[in-house]
Each structure stands twice: as structure tokens, then as C-alpha cells.
Design brief:
Blueprint (H helix, E strand, L loop, with lengths): L1 E5 L6 H8 L5 E3 L1 H8 L11 H18 L8 E4 L5 H9 L3 E4 L4 H11 L4 H14 L15
Parallel strand pairs: 1-3, 1-4, 2-3
Helix pairs in contact: 2-3, 5-6
Amino acid sequence: MLYVITGPPAGGKSTWIQAHATPRDIVIDMDRIASALTGPGAPAWNQDPIVQRVAQRARFAAIDEAVKHLDDVDVYLIHTMPGPKALARYRQLHARIVVVDPGEDTVRERVKAMRSAGMDRVVTRWYGQHRRQGGSHPVTAQTSRDW
């Protein structure tokens, strides 16, 4: 099964996966990929444009290969804001879309404490998109971790 985990930055997507995936499952997460591609001491949420470009290419390759194995393993894919083309592909693959959203106030507090100032714009864009689409329905009522 393909699980596409979506939600705002700092919404708890990775934590949701930690609670549901098994060691045999495949997890495709840009933050984890970027971390794997950078040296010691690199920031946990690395926004360097070169790192992001290389990580994005690795992510596309991982997705392309992982979906070939959906009969054998579950694949958990973090995609913060999938567009119509991506959603169509996920539907074709019979993906389960999971929205992890602990609420805008919680997300903004987390971003302010843990992420770069630029992430606030992504939060605004995510909530704006979801309001236009009829809102989101949180899958986690509790906070995802101690921030």
C-alpha cells in the first residue's frame, strides 16, 4: 500500500509515520534524504538550494522504484502539498492520502521555535490551499512530539 502523508510543515508527518511504519517499510521523506546527503553538523531541515535539488532528484528516483514494490512492502511518502498531477498519480496507484494537521496555531508555534522564517510562508500557503479545498481533517488530535 502507498500512503501519501500530507500536512503543513512541522505538522507531525514524520511522527505519524514513525507510529505506523514497520522496519521493513519504505519511507520517502525529503528531510531524511537531505540529511543523508549532507555532512555532519548540517541543519536538520536543510533548505540549501543545492541540497534540495539533489535531494529532490533522489526522492523522484526513490518514488519511481518504490512503487514497483507495492505488492511486497508498504511505502510511506511525505508530500506536503501535492498538486493535481501528483494526486492523479497517487489515485492511479490506489494510495491512501493521510492529512496530518494538529491545527494552525500549533503548527505556527512549532515553525517559530524550530524552523527557518521562510517556512512560515509555506504554512500560510498550505492552510490557504486547504481552506479553498474545503479544509483539512486532522488525523492526530494530540501533539506529535515535544517541541
